């Protein structure tokens, strides 16, 4: 439960971050972390387009540098973009200035007002600085599509078990997840649609 759906105490660490949207609205917010990459992003975009769904992509600046055409495809398709640092830095492994500079370097390419820390980790000083410049978006449900211990069916099961009104659902635009997403993403979308959920992106 702590992994798939963060515990209350974890949300208290970053009280002004966005963990979940309106509890009373039958909607969810799909997010994809770590891209864009040619092995995964095109499939995700094609799948979202097939169902007429918009999502938010939290992108790594260095990937945007290497694959600017994929970044542009995401934007042109009407999806929202977010900053995920330039080098996918862990917040506790670097000096605050290094982390902030890496985030700002990424935003020269991504041009986002949303930020999500890689692994959901950042120091209190990083949080205090970044919340003044970005809307910090965390999550209500991590599908764990990146885990080598999870199957595609397990990913779908997590969506079915933990999705709820206002959920911010995190998938990954990555090599670790794409094989599972070929099955898990369309099945998850079809189940969410069947349950009456609409799909929204952040302002």
Gist?
42% of the residues lie in helices and 14% in strands. The protein is an alpha/beta fold and 203 residues long. Strands 1, 2, 3, 6, 7 and 8 form a 6-stranded parallel β-sheet that branches.
Describe this structure in words.
The strands form 2 sheets. Strands 1, 2, 3, 6, 7 and 8 form a 6-stranded parallel sheet that branches. The radius of gyration is 16 Å and the shape is globular. Helix 2 (41-51) links the parallel strand 1 and strand 2. Helix 7 crosses helix 8 (175-194). The model has no long low-confidence stretch (mean pLDDT 95). It contains 8 helices and 8 strands. The protein has 203 residues and is an alpha/beta fold. It has a single domain, classed as TIM Barrel. The longest helix has 20 residues, at 175-194.
Please give a handful of descriptors for the protein shown:
42% helix; two-stranded parallel sheet; single chain; 8 helices; globular; alpha/beta; 8 strands; TIM Barrel; 6-stranded parallel β-sheet; 203 residues
CATH-derived topology: TIM Barrel
> What string gives the helices and strands in order?
HEHEHHEHEHEEHEHE
Helicity, in percent?
A: 40-55%
Average pLDDT taken over every residue: 95
**Content-based structural category:** alpha/beta
Radius of gyration: 16 Å
CATH architect. name: Alpha-Beta Barrel
Low-confidence parts lasting 5 or more residues at pLDDT below 50? Answer: none
Proportion of residues in extended strands? 5-15%
Largest sheet: 6 strands, parallel
The quaternary state of the protein chains shown equals single chain
CATH class, please? Alpha Beta
CATH homologous group name: Glycoside hydrolase/deacetylase
Which descriptor suits the 3D outline? Answer: globular
Number of domains: 1
